[in-house]
Amino acid sequence: MKLLKSTFLAAAIALTVTTQAGADDRIDYDALSNQYNGKRDWTVPEAGKFGLSTFAYQDMNGNGVYELGDKPLANIPVALFDESGNLIEVKKTNVDGYANFYGSTFEGMENVTSIRKPGRYSLRLLVPDQFDLTTDTLMQTVEVMPLQGSIGGLIANNVPKISGFKRKLTLVGQTTAIDDLSVNATSRDGSKQSAKIDDRGRFELPVTKGTWTIKSKERTITVDISDTPVQLAKTFGTESKPSRNPTTTVTFDDMIRDEGVLKIPNGYAGLDWDNWVITHKHFYKGAGYKNGAVSGDYVVYNSSGHPASISRTEPFDFVGGYFSVSFDSAEGEGFDVKAYRGDQLVYHDVIELSRFGPVHFMADYRGITKLEFSTQHYWQGIADDLQFRLP
Q: Which one of 145, 190, 317, 325 has the fewest beta carbons within 10 angstroms of its own beta carbon?
């Protein structure tokens, strides 16, 4: 029996060796290796599409240089024109700041490419009213040329320059004095601005970074302007005594470590939270999630656009925070903010929101027990760096 098993085993080995040797004789391994490891034959066209990208960033100091501290800017429209001035396509910058156009000479790529032949193309920025352009890049020209062996058969002989955007700084406020007709503002360096008060008691002033003193018949207040527009609560500056409690900034960057979402639990930062969700700024496609982040990578929003609240049994102060809106279609959405002391409504303001970046809402609500936030048309409002004073 052992001899029989050995005979079969030897025959099987011999058959395997013979079969393998026969396969070696039929395959040209040098040609096969060259096919996968050899140099490219550049005379063979390469199907696909080439990319032409523009980059937009928030120029935080307005110096026209992309540097540390600047941020990619989402949702900036860029128009592509052919050499005859015909509009081909408009793309918006993505969450990483890029507007991407594609080209190819190959058939079957018509639906995914906008550049179909060599020529001179122009890229025109459509600058939103909320920004000033800090770079000389409003209109740029790119020469697209054929090149055999390149992806899609086309190349651009020059790369578009990057574009810097500086948010226009404004200060919005409201007075309750019916005989106030105007307000005057003076910066620490002596710059002056004035504005009329409309029939709703609202005013808006163009300002620059720094400390400003705002004077009306009702009151005189001092406001520090940083890198974002400011909206003052109707009652801001009416409290004569400073609070003794220290200010705590809630950044929402210490609760979650992935790019998902997390419902905020009660007790976080010493407060109770209802219908608030933390998310990474890249998790959703809406530009407001990206542009609305102030510190770190995480923001919060009112889940599904429904009302949300922040409360505490013991009274606390709401100093303010940074607010924006989630999506393009919600530009100008209102965030209705109500503050209660027990069952009594003691403060009420409406923040005008933008998806291009946050507005710094300065509230200075004192001794409240509950904050309610409601978007007027049930879009998701974005919040970051909320400030409180807790006893």
A: 190
* pLDDT tens-digit map of 234-248: 888 777 677 788 999
CATH number at residue 359: 2.60.120
For the record, the structure tokens of 310 come out as 């922040």
- 201 within domain boundaries: no
pLDDT for the residue numbered 143: 95
Spatial separation of the C-alpha atoms in residues 137 and 152, rounded to whole Å? 27
Q: Which two tokens stand for residue 93?
A: 């910058």
Residues 134 and 283 in one domain: no
235 & 379 share domain: yes
- Residue 167, Ramachandran bin (φ over 0: left; ψ between -120 and 50: alpha; else beta): beta
**73 lies in some domain:** yes
Q: If we measure between CA atoms, which residue out of 135, 335, 353, 350 comes closest to residue 229?
A: 353
Rounded to the nearest 5 percent, the helix, strand and coil shares of the chain are 10, 45, 45
pLDDT exceeds 90 at position 221: no
Q: Could you list the residue range(s) of the whole structural domain that residue 287 is in?
A: 228-389
Q: Which DSSP string corresponds to 220-274? A: EEEEEE-SS-EEE-TTTT---S--SSPEEEE-S-SS--SSSEEEPPTTGGGSEEE
Instruction: Write down the pTM of the prediction.
Output: 0.81
Are 274 and 376 part of one and the same domain? yes
